[in-house]
Design brief:
By secondary structure, the chain is of the alpha/beta class. Helix 3 crosses helix 4.
């Protein structure tokens, strides 16, 4: 099954349950090329599950996820791996390899997958490290890096695969407050460069400033969808208003 719309990702009637608990209850939305979309909502509402279903790290129980016209939910695991290379993902807890240097962390995937030679991978990796201010850390192991540096390294590790879209699952929630800004600055630069980005976050200022569109989730559904101004300043549902009162005034 295919769908040749003008989007990068299209989620259609997406459903997921764990042990009888419905986590996603028929979610629908599209992500256009070059768009920055932020997903907000209280803990446990299904945000991270939705993100993981978008690159098939979690297999939905119903519905479809179209990526550039191809229905990922209809593919075999080996086929999904090929498409997943185009969908970069950055997690809450870095997931960098502790036994590899910063440079090795970045180059291992494209070299082992046969995408790049070791020499070209290292050239690209060094350019990316320079771009995010970590060129002087290329030979350091992750134990010698701060949390913010590890997360920036995780972002670069995805970027070297030249993805068509980047998914961020609460990328700053495990960081000390003073390290949050350095990661958000990298994400702002990516957004300004035209990268298609989907972010699950609790950073309300970032969501308002950088997003083209904001989705507010609650209890497995999207309750609000619109521009930052529409969702933050002209909230339609009482549940969303209550959420924003609490998190913005906290």
């Amino acid at each position: 099954m295919s769908d040749k719309g003008n989007y990068v990702i299209k989620v259609q009637d997406l459903r997921k349950e764990y042990n009888g608990l419905q986590v996603l209850k028929g979610v629908d939305f599209e992500i256009d090329r070059g768009e920055v979309v932020t997903i907000l909502g209280p803990s446990g509402c299904g945000k991270s599950t939705l993100l993981r279903c978008m690159n098939m790290l979690e297999k939905p129980d119903g519905g479809n996820v179209f990526f550039e016209g191809t229905d990922l939910t209809a593919l075999k695991p080996a086929q999904i791996i090929q498409y997943r290379r185009k969908i970069g993902m950055v997690f809450q807890h870095f997931n960098v390899f502790p036994h590899l240097t910063a440079l090795e962390n970045i180059t291992i995937a494209p070299v082992e997958n046969g995408m790049l030679t070791k020499e070209i991978a290292e050239q690209k990796a060094l350019a990316l490290l320079e771009r995010i201010g970590l060129a002087d850390k290329k030979d350091e192991y992750p134990t010698r890096l701060s949390g913010g540096q590890k997360q920036r390294l995780a972002i670069v590790r995805s970027l070297i695969m030249e993805p068509d879209v980047m998914l961020f699952d609460e990328p700053t929630s495990a960081l000390d407050p003073e390290m949050v800004m350095e990661v958000l600055d990298v994400m702002r630069e990516l957004a300004a460069s035209g990268m298609t980005i989907v972010v699950v976050t609790h950073e309300m200022g970032f969501a308002r400033e950088v997003s083209d569109r904001v989705l507010f989730m609650y209890d497995g559904n999207i309750l609000e969808e619109g521009t930052p101004e529409e969702v933050f300043d002209h909230t339609r549902t009482e549940r969303a208003r209550d959420f924003f009162r609490k998190v913005i005034n906290a």
